[in-house]
Predict the 3D structure of the following.
Amino acid sequence: MADNHTIASIFRHDNSAPAILTTASSDPKNITLAYADVKGQSERFIQLANKLYGKEIPAGSVISSLLPNGLACLLVFLATTFQRCVAAPLNPAMKQSEIEFYLEDADSKILIVPEGTSEDNEGVKAAHKLGVPVWGVGWEDDAGIKLAVLGDTPVELPTFKHQQISSINPQPDDTALLLHTSGTTGRPKAVPLTHANIARSMLNIANTYKLTKSDRSFIVMPLFHVHGLIGSTLSSLYAGGSVVLPSRFSASHFWPEYTDSKATWYSAVPTIHQILLRYDVPEPLPNIRFIRSCSAALAPTVLHDLENKLHAPVLEAYAMTEASHQMCSNPLPPAVHKSGSVGLPQGVEVAILDDDGNKTHLGEVCIRGENVTRGYLNNAEANAKSFTQGSNWFRTGDQGYIDEDGYVVLTGRIKELINRGGEKISPLELDAVLLKCPGVSEAVSFAIDDEMYGQEVNAAVVPKDGAEVTEDQVKQFMLENVAKFKVPKRVFVAQELPRTATGKIQRRVVAEHFTGKQQ
Ligand code: ATP
Ligand code: MG
């Protein structure tokens, strides 16, 4: 069972050690599950699910869920994969039509929601419309996980004794997880990830940060994306360490709960780091070993402010759904971590290729490794474009180069490069300069259609609290710091930038928001 090539390899360590902890603001509160309890609860879930289904749920069935972060969410994921089914966790903030799209695209057989969810819930409405059964999951103090058809009484298991059951039997080639990409550059693509893909990613991440059983990760990212699920949670469990699972990210509770939980690290998107910088940190912050930033570009100023405030290394990593999360990361000290770089390849091969698949200095970042998906679901066109013929490199869609020390530097998404009269301008490079402009706290540059040049550069900036920033000041600053053709023709000063559910910037959406024109 504890095959190192499946997610069940988390049970190869000391099973009496703590695995999952909840906090005072979680539901259920202040619980610690040892690895043995996680195993027992997973087996309990499998039994309950099979009983509800009326027979053993066939291997390969997709089980979707709409659950906030917490014990139930993680256990439903683990148990689903252990019983050789495919977990498809979804964002509970979505609307009915979005949930319908994901349920249909994944061919979901069951939707799991928190017990007590109303019939008016967007997900419940979506599932009913498609004829997908909806089950409610909950927790009871003495027995643990409970399950019922939504609105019914929970299933009973009078003879439950987990020691006697062995329903945990995943195989390396089984698809364990079906997630969609964030949809930053177009329609989200369905990415199946096998146990072997995920196990390799867990191993790579544990190696990068030298995670051990003494490590404890505080989970702030949602478990319905690879960052929270694999980057923060499964990597810790793979190393035999533990995870602290608050129900949701709360900036005002973060530092007190982080300190109480004795966590040694956390991983988040740059937006969250930026928000956390506004709150007081208990001094000295005990136990913290490092902070990880991933999923979007970390501005060098934010990295430096965080390091000054927390006295711990801030390590930027580079990840994507298709790679079961991490591809590159800056290493722990004493090795050098560089701001503005996503670090070194971590257990994957990285090459910079041109359109014809030849190596070049500045080009598309391509990767190869056991953590990479075998291909998108039902999307032959995207698969043909994404894998090079013969050599089987996966094209990330990101542009970048490898510096003299082997560190990867990203210069932007290929689809988002600003092409001004044939001159390709990296929006990421411009954002970094804009962020150095006095008084600017957030910045995003983007392309707008232009009669003369095909595309022209525009930007939007958010001033720091209390700072006065004008369009002319920003343009003047850019004139002094970048070549004239890269200076934004217009700069919008705003209090907020539109972001996706995952905190990412869709430059196309930002452009439409500020210019009022479809790009
Ligand atoms: P879609 O593929 O649907 O357009 P997406 O690429 O945003 O959406 P994800 O898989 O969530 O979907 O994100 C992966 C992408 O996030 C990477 O390809 C890269 O563009 C970006 N990214 C990840 N880490 C970093 C980083 N440290 N710096 C800059 N960009 C990053
Ligand atoms: Mg992508």
About this structure: The domain at 7-314 is CATH 3.40.50.12780 (Rossmann fold). The CA atoms of residues 49 and 55 lie 9 Å apart. The first strand starts at residue 18 and ends at 21.
